[in-house]
Design goal:
Blueprint (H helix, E strand, L loop, with lengths): L1 H14 L3 E3 L6 E3 L1 E15 L2 E4 L2 E13 L2 E12 L2 E13 L6 E15 L8 E4 L2 E12 L4 E20 L3 E20 L1
Antiparallel strand pairs: 1-2, 3-4, 3-5, 3-12, 5-6, 6-7, 7-8, 8-10, 9-11, 10-11, 11-12
């Protein structure tokens, strides 16, 4: 429950464009906001087995334009898989091919996730812990207006996690989990 309030605070911060005017000039510094929805085609690699594990994602990020070609910022997502949930917080970098309003881009994200299992009440001795989150992808930016663009992109996503469980009283085990996913996304970028 406490993570929902942190996530809502991040959404509130990122939904509004922050502008500050320098005292001696009319130069404006802008922070751009991005909202995304994605479909995940993914699998969990576990004990040399591959388990199909699809889902969807909702993301929000805030960017500071470094140049017309490069934006960097921070973001967070909510990954909803079949039984697992992840909330990664990450550094996000977008590099555009050119400074036109319609442009191809590449995107990279790296961070750390909090995780839990939907079936935790059914399996009280099992604990899912998040880990490093990595995503790299490409896409197309299409201008809708002077201040809003549509981003269509796909990405490879890798999520590390660990599962700790206890069986037969006091025998504790730890398993490393790997989630390999392809994400198809549509985003709204406010500039």
């Amino acid at each position: 429950m406490k993570y929902k309030y942190s996530y809502l605070l991040l959404v509130f911060f990122c939904c509004f464009t922050v502008r500050s005017v320098a005292q001696d000039s009319l130069v404006k510094e802008t922070i751009n906001a991005r909202l995304s929805a994605s479909y995940i085609i993914g699998a969990q690699v576990y004990n040399d087995n591959v388990l199909y594990n699809p889902g969807y994602t909702f993301s929000i990020a805030a960017y500071k334009p470094h140049s017309p070609y490069l934006n960097y910022g921070i973001g967070s997502s909510m990954f909803i898989l079949q039984t697992e949930r992840f909330i990664p917080f990450y550094v996000d970098i977008i590099s555009y091919k050119n400074e036109k309003s319609n442009s191809n881009f590449i995107q990279a994200q790296c961070g750390y996730s909090h995780a839990w299992s939907k079936h935790r009440t059914l399996m009280p001795n099992y604990t899912l812990k998040g880990g490093v989150y990595i995503s790299i992808g490409t896409g197309r930016k299409v201008a809708i207006s002077n201040t809003v663009s549509l981003l269509l992109h796909w990405a490879y996503v890798h999520q590390f996690a660990t599962m700790k469980y206890t069986v037969f009283g006091d025998n504790s085990y730890t398993e490393t989990l790997n989630y390999d996913m392809f994400s198809l996304s549509i985003s709204i970028l406010s500039m």
